[in-house]
Specification:
six-stranded antiparallel β-barrel, mainly beta, 15% helix, 6 strands
């Protein structure tokens, strides 16, 4: 199981920076957080994701764990758990209202 030893959340930007066990920092866009079977899970989009590469949205699911009194985010190693939580997030996303881009007006 891979755990993130350090997490930094820029609430204005919605960016989470996670530091792994080897000191590598990866940036993610925070999408959603929800509880499933008593555990808090996060849906995050990798900062380097290019939505033009694929028609389907790509997000990662991490779960919140406590270790030595510290809150950490860890990968979900169990495929059934990952799929169930992923489906929960997809359902939540589908229930969100569509946000339309504001139309530009000429001054």
């Amino acid at each position: 199981m891979s755990e993130s030893n350090g997490a930094f959340l820029d609430e204005e930007e919605g960016i989470i920076e996670l530091e792994d066990e080897e000191g590598n920092v990866t940036r993610f866009e925070f999408v959603d957080q929800a509880e499933f079977n008593g555990t808090i899970y996060y849906a995050l989009i990798p900062d380097d994701y290019d939505e033009n590469d694929d028609d389907t949205a790509q997000f990662v699911v991490l779960k919140q764990q406590e270790a030595n009194g510290d809150i950490m985010l860890a990968t979900v190693d169990d495929d059934d758990e990952y799929n169930a939580v992923g489906e929960m997030f997809l359902k939540r996303f589908s229930e969100l209202p569509d946000l339309e881009e504001p139309e530009e007006t000429d001054g």
